[in-house]
Design a protein that fits this description.
This protein is mostly beta strands. It folds into 2 domains: 9-180, Galactose-binding domain-like (Jelly Rolls), CATH 2.60.120; 184-344, Galactose-binding domain-like (Jelly Rolls, Sandwich), CATH 2.60.120.260. Helix content is 5%, strand content 42%. The protein has helices at 18-21, 125-129, 285-292, and strands at residues 9-10, 24-25, 34-38, 56-57, 62-63, 66-67, 72-73, 83-101, 112-118, 134-141, 147-151, 157-166, 170-171, 173-180, 193-194, 203-207, 212-213, 232-233, 243-261, 272-278, 296-303, 309-312, 322-330, 334-335, 337-344. The strands form 6 sheets. Strands 2, 3, 8, 9, 10, 11, 12 and 14 form an 8-stranded antiparallel β-sheet that branches. Strands 15, 16, 19, 20, 21, 22, 23 and 25 form an 8-stranded antiparallel β-sheet that branches. A hairpin with a 2-residue loop joins β5 and β6 (66-67). The radius of gyration is 22 Å and the shape is globular. The protein starts with 8 loop residues before the first strand and ends with a strand. InterPro entries: Allantoicase, Allantoicase_dom, Galactose-bd-like_sf. Its EC number is 3.5.3.4. Keywords: Hydrolase, Purine metabolism.
Length: 346
């Protein structure tokens, strides 16, 4: 009788540098990122490389092509050349760097990787292969079973990547850390849009705590949270005060409706929340954070409840055009999503 697969072993998280810790994973499928194709993915389907969960190794697990691996893995190349994969980013963005993770790939990792980028309105593989590509990460050595945090020197915004491995092998995970570029200026019509949504260029600037859950950036992801780990959650506060985060809108605009979603947070939702806002010109993230303590009130303190979407409209103070908000929760707890519905300034 064949033995059953063993208990999965999960890869440890990467120790992220500052340029990655405060960035967004533009290759997150939750944002709409997907693998479009690869020269070869015989051993492990290329789409697994973008899985937001940690890479797993399952002892004793095999499929019809061999050992099951959690990532993208091509067969052993017996001809000249190298393998590649095409990835569509979830949102157009400026890339700060990458985590090329070879966790659990020991004798089958690629010795080197390079990454190219392009801007395209098409996801067709043949069209993309014929596109003009720019190298944003030169050929870089890789090692076995480890995270490789690699900075990107490009300051342009991109929509698609071509990941080249030399000559073949496997990558467990690819994280593309960067900043979404706003598409709000190109939107036509007067329909309300979520000004702080990540896909519209919204981003987390700073926060005082994010001990549990995903990160503050999860507040800005599309859709409702999938579980209690998919949101912003702070530790239990044992001293006076409250927790907060500062968020930048994708474009300056006026807010007409606010949604605070505490999905899955039941014994740990905040008692109350409030929002301050300002129209900021210039400054750094650090100076903006300092200023935020004195911003005007956009939403006065409101009572929250467990596992619910809270909608506010009449309670909103009309401040005109704003660019940033400070989201306060009292005293601590977890929030799944924050939506700031409004109209971009024209």
């Amino acid at each position: 009788m064949a033995s059953l697969p063993g208990t999965p072993v999960f890869a440890p998280p990467a120790e992220l540098p500052e340029w990655a810790a405060r960035a967004v994973n533009l290759a997150n499928p939750r944002l709409g990122a997907r693998a479009l194709g690869a020269s070869d993915d015989f051993f492990a389907e290329v789409g697994r490389m973008l899985n937001p969960d940690p890479a797993a190794f399952v002892p004793g697990k095999y499929d019809t092509n061999g050992k099951w691996m959690d990532g993208w893995e091509s067969r052993r190349k017996r001809v000249a050349g190298h393998d590649w994969a095409l990835v569509k980013l979830g949102v157009k963005g400026v890339i700060h760097g990458f985590d090329v993770d070879t966790s659990h790939f020991t004798g089958n990792y690629p010795p080197a990787v390079s990454i190219e980028a392009t801007v395209s309105a098409s996801d067709d593989v043949a069209t993309l292969q014929a596109a003009e590509w720019t190298e944003i990460l030169p050929a870089t050595p890789l090692g076995p079973n480890s995270h490789h945090l690699l900075e990107c020197g490009s300051s342009d915004a991109w929509t698609h990547l071509r990941v080249n491995i030399y000559p073949d092998g496997g990558i467990a995970r690819l994280r593309v850390y960067g900043r979404p570029v706003s598409a709000l200026e190109s939107l036509a019509g007067d329909a309300l849009v979520d000004l702080v949504a990540m896909e519209n260029g919204g981003r987390a600037v700073s926060w005082n705590d994010a001990s549990f859950g995903s990160s503050v950036a999860a507040l800005l992801l599309p859709g409702r949270g999938i579980n209690m780990g998919d949101g912003w959650e702070t530790r239990r506060r044992r001293e006076p005060g409250n927790d907060w985060c500062v968020l930048e809108l994708g474009a300056p605009g006026t807010v007409e409706k606010i949604e605070v979603d505490t999905a899955f947070f039941k014994g740990n939702f905040p008692d109350r929340c409030s929002i301050q806002a300002a129209c900021v010109s210039g400054g750094t993230d650090r100076s903006i954070t300092t200023q935020s303590m004195f911003w005007q009130t956009l939403l006065p303190e409101q009572k929250l409840s467990m596992d619910a979407v809270h909608c506010f409209a009449e309670e909103i103070v009309q401040l005109g055009t704003i660019t940033h908000v400070r989201f306060n929760i009292f005293p601590d707890g977890g929030v799944s999503r924050l939506r700031l519905w409004g109209r971009p300034a024209r």
